[in-house]
Amino acid sequence: MLPWWPRRVFAHVLSAQLLITAGVTALATGLFLAPLAAQLDEQAEHRALAVAQATAAQPGIARAVLAGAPDPEGPVQDAAERIRLATGASYVVVADTRGIRWSHTNPAEIGRHVSTDPGPALAGHEWTGIEKGTLGRSARGKVPLRDTEGAIVGEVSVGIAYDDVRDVLLHALPGILVYSGAALAVGALAAFGVSWRLRKRTHGIELSEIAALLQEREAMLHGIREGVLALDRHGRVRLVNDEAGRLLGLGQDAVGRPLEDVLPPGRTADVLTGRVEGTDLLTVCGERVLVANRMTTGFGTVATLRDRTELERLARELDATRGLTEALRAQDHEHANRMHTLVGLLELEMYDRAVEYVAEVTGADRSTAEQVTERVREPLVAALLVGKGAVAAERGVALRVGPATRLPDGVVDPTDLVTVLGNLVDNALDAARPGPEAFVEVEVRAVGTAVVMSVADNGPGVPEQARELVFTDGWTTKEATAHRPRGLGLSLVRRLAERYGGSARVTEREGGGAVFTVELPDALRPAGPERDAPERCSLEEVGG
């Protein structure tokens, strides 16, 4: 900055505005033709627009366009020529929605396509400008032609000859010097007023301090561990800090582009654009679970994002722990019933029957566990099925292992299988129709290096129109639990499957109910001799 240049914002802006005003006034005085020509052209455009609006307001013209075909001697041509002569316009052209002329100063042009684009007017917008048509350059105004119901049936285009504007300009030369001096005085006063107001708004800070504030803002936005995304009024990205770029997978090239162009369609885009309203909205972007909040400002909207992935993972581990606790409680409850039965037999001195009962119970439990572990060699998955079997038994639901179940060891990531299978079984247990016939059937099988899991229930099923919605995050028919909201389980299941390059889908079960099927390619290590062993075909119940 020059040493003699003022440092305060007030003085800086005042000096700059005075210099600019003086320069612009001098330029306008020396080169008056172009600015005044533009002003007169604008006046001509407004005049053309006013004539077009008055023409379009006559209901008889719209009715005539709807009633017949273009006619050089028709009512539309007569009305247009009458208006043209009364207003001194170069032409008044009425066109239908196809762009076909219904009126023109040259009757031979009626029935032909207009020479300029009628698109803005046919789209419902008024338009002004300078264009060249069959009658030469002219200041034009175009407006939509509407019927009595408000529907667009065509356009009205009115032109004022461009040469007429130049003639008016030449006659205005004598007053330009007078106006230039007045403009300089008014500009100086306006600059002083604006600068004084700016001084009050900026509290007398210096320009260097403004730069420092901007740098601090940038450092703060990009240093915080919360994502910040700003959109303008048209939905274009104005700002993306580093955390938001990481969470949403966006780069700085996203700035200035519509959000729909940088984010795929889905709940995340709906939340950020305001199509889904609320506070602390959960959404899944890629493999991340995000909490989003959105606030409207005078210049657009600002959305904040918090990464809840780790918290959601811990919540699901808590769910797994609670599920294990529930399974242990169910087993404890069943064990207590068996002990009461055994005590009763002993008190009745039915010792032989008590021995048989103990052998029968322990043998059945051992047989159930052996059958699961024989078919499912992965310990975590086998333990999950045994635990869910105890929970299902307490709910009065039979948890069955399908006949094709065969999962060898060598699973790449057993926790992924537990996550998928646990979510599917929990949903199926909730959906199973109450009653003695209630059941959930689980089938886990290896197909090469892929794992295919299917869980069926005899509940009400999933309507066809909702079979894609069930996999969207936030969609649920259940009430939220105390520790976290619902509607993320099946969404995470599908995203996990897609991460493997597989799929997740739901179909109707024959006889009623739903069948959820998840395919995880390359979830197993390359096949070994043990994995090729023949499968047993039987249907067993787990637990209870």
From TrEMBL:
EC numbers: 2.7.13.3
Membrane disposition: Multi-pass membrane protein
GO CC terms, sorted: plasma membrane
Localization, UniProt: Cell membrane
Region annotation Disordered: where it falls in the sequence: 524-544
Occurrences of domain Histidine kinase (ranges): 413-524
Residue ranges of the TM segments: 176-196
Biased composition (Basic and acidic residues): 528-544
GO biological process: regulation of DNA-templated transcription
Catalytic activity, reaction form: ATP + protein L-histidine = ADP + protein N-phospho-L-histidine
Keywords: ATP-binding, Cell membrane, Kinase, Membrane, Nucleotide-binding, Phosphoprotein, Transferase, Transmembrane, Transmembrane helix, Two-component regulatory system
Pfam families, alphabetized: HATPase_c, PAS, sCache_3_2, SPOB_a
Gene3D superfamilies: 1.10.287.130, Histidine kinase-like ATPase, C-terminal domain, PAS domain
Taxonomic superkingdom: Bacteria
Any one Gene Ontology molecular-function term assigned to this protein's record: ATP binding
Top EC class of this enzyme: transferase
Protein name: histidine kinase
